[in-house]
């Protein structure tokens, strides 16, 4: 007992003896100082992230505009000309823009119905254990690096397309297939989440009115998850638009206006990956690549904006 | 047509399409494992890659990938944790907070190739780091920060408000409540988020080809001094990761057994990602069981 009392006795500290009692009471406590320190550190961290985003935009905008300011290339020609020959100082980016949009839209349009159908089958038709078995598989597929998708495209899809339609097989169709495979798991898992969020009462009420299962799915469940499903599609398309290596491996890399689905072409990302290492920093052909990067940045902002608009409509 | 008939038809059609999709995706997975696993051996995992001959392994690439994950986590976890604490515990609802949230979200939606180019411009050229592990880790940090911040914030938000109030009622400061009550409660979510993002970092390639580089110098695995240029721990040496290796081997076509090497490397990548996912699940499961008691 004596020992216990001993340990509870407040130790007279140096500060206690030197400072007056009022000073000590008015000074911030250890707790307060810790609070300030913690708040400061967390505030700095968030400011660092904010500063990073600002720096990133500043650098890329600065670099991306150099083609138009220092090299005096016209913005109109950059966006509308189909002639991309950096060696001849022709920097028309339209072929890449068109190809990027083509592969993205095709992959999105192809993946949406299949993702939707798979999600409906898993959440509405099949027993719950199927979902529990498939969820880890879908998670794994979402996590597979895009290079692996590109590699399978290169070794399986491209030769197969070549055999089926003749030619090399490289081109928009091959890229579409790869991107479709790549975004399908992401879109399916997002759609599943959205369908599961539809309240169970909706389904019960619909069944209580005598609706069949298909009527419930098509008129109650899917319409009430509509904005979420759209979000999944745009999210998948945004990922497809920004994908670089998987596309670069199968698209053939010829910066010409695409004429058919099976001709070699190039996207914004594929030109960037092949070009940056082959040009000298500060030259016009290098600046043109940075302009493509800026275009990519602006497009991903546009996708972000679109996602916000869709989800805001869904809340209403 | 009668509704019952439509129902049956639609159900069958949906199951058929979903079945085909599922089979196609499973075939994709099976193809990767069946073609890849026969090439995976201790020799493949532990011997260095060869530039022009067949029979090369992936020792350096595998190590680089793992080392890069560690370096990235060292930088990004503390930063993301502090940022998440700010957003979850301190942020008030105002325009500044909304702007910061927007910035984090925009950063998370940028294509990795754009972030890689930014890293090339700033870390490789401006800071003079050249192609190095450090530049790669910093770029991956930028890529990782938004994901980590979001998952950490979610984990912190899962802790009930009542627990915070109990702590505050005892006279604890907000910081102490955060570190002593909220963080331990959110730890499982934080660990799960870390592991899942580690999987993404492990497979990233587009952001690395112009930051961590596409080559690996000969390194000495016995040299533990991180400042020695030949040490395997030196963060300033260029380092090709596993995912970059798959891309490079296939786009250059200098190695005669590119197919075998990339099949094996792809299988190793997938299995590692699978392990990451399973680990995250296991931790979630264990913690759930502990809380249920």
List the helices and strands and how they pair.
The complex is a heterodimer of chains A (316) and B (293).
Chain A: H1 2-8, H2 14-18, H3 21-26, H4 30-69, H5 75-80, E1 84-85, E2 90-91, H6 94-125, H7 128-143, H8 146-165, H9 172-197, H10 200-208, H11 213-224, H12 226-242, H13 245-250, H14 268-275, H15 284-315
Antiparallel strand pairs in A: 1-2
Chain B: H1 3-36, H2 42-46, H3 59-90, H4 95-109, H5 112-126, H6 133-158, H7 161-169, H8 174-203, H9 242-252, H10 258-292
The CATH homologous superfamily of chain B is called MetI-like
Strand order of the largest sheet of chain A: 1-2
Described by the principal axes of the CA atoms, the overall outline of chain A is flat
Low-pLDDT windows of residues of chain B: none
Separation, N- and C-terminal Cα atoms of chain A: 67 Å
Q: What is the count of β-strands of chain B?
A: 0
Domain module count of chain A: 1
- Report the major sheet of chain B: none
Distance between the termini of chain B: 54 Å
Describe the structure.
The complex is a heterodimer of chains A (316) and B (293). Chain A is an all-alpha fold and 316 residues long. Chain A has a single domain, classed as Orthogonal Bundle (MetI-like fold), CATH 1.10.3720. Chain A is built from 15 helices and two strands. Chain A has helices at 2-8, 14-18, 21-26, 30-69, 75-80, 94-125, 128-143, 146-165, 172-197, 200-208, 213-224, 226-242, 245-250, 268-275, 284-315; strands at residues 84-85, 90-91. Chain A has a two-stranded antiparallel sheet. In chain A, strand 1 (84-85) and strand 2 (90-91) form a beta hairpin. In chain A, helix 6 (94-125) runs parallel beside helix 9. Chain A is flat and about 85 Å long. Chain A starts with a helix and ends with a helix. Chain B has a single domain, classed as Orthogonal Bundle (MetI-like fold). By secondary structure, chain B is mainly alpha-helical. In chain B, 72% of the residues lie in helices and 0% in strands. The termini of chain B are far apart. In chain B, helix 3 (59-90) packs across helix 6 (133-158), helix 5 packs across helix 6 (133-158) and helix 9 packs antiparallel against helix 10. At the A-B interface, helix 4, helix 6, helix 7, helix 8 and helix 9 of A face helix 1, helix 3, helix 4, helix 5 and helix 6 of B.
